[in-house]
Amino acid sequence: MAIEPMVTSGSPETETLDDGWTVVTVDGSRAAHFEHTIAVTDDGPQVLTRPG
């Protein structure tokens, strides 16, 4: 499972560009995005992208 939060400095409204991949804010405000990949195991969730 991937959790991909995006923080914007303006409106939370976004749109995906014609390339089918790029996401931008509708109002053109700056945004930051990051991702964590999590494996759900019998022993509970494991964050696979956690540093160190």
Task: Summarize this structure briefly.
The protein is mostly beta strands. The protein is 0% helix and 46% strand. It has one domain (2-47).
Descriptive labels:
52 residues; mainly beta
Characterise this structure.
The chain has 52 residues and is an all-beta fold. The chain has one domain (2-47). It is 0% helix and 46% strand. It has no helices and seven strands. It has a three-stranded antiparallel beta sheet with strand order 1-6-7, with no helix packed on it. Strands 2-5 form a two-stranded antiparallel ribbon. The radius of gyration is 15 Å and the shape is elongated. The two termini are 20 Å apart. 0% of the residues are buried. The mean pLDDT is 91.
Radius of gyration: 15 Å
How do the helices and strands follow one another from N- to C-terminus?
EEEEEEE
Instruction: Estimate the strand proportion.
Output: over 45%
Distance between the termini: 20 Å
Helix content: under 10%
Structural class: mainly beta
Largest sheet properties: 3 strands, antiparallel
Please report the total strand number as a whole number. Answer: 7
| Shape designation | elongated
- Provide the low-confidence segments as ranges: none
Mean pLDDT across every amino acid position = 91
Strand arrangement, major sheet: 1-6-7
Estimate nothing, just give the exact number of structural domains: 1
Query: DSSP helix count?
Result: 0
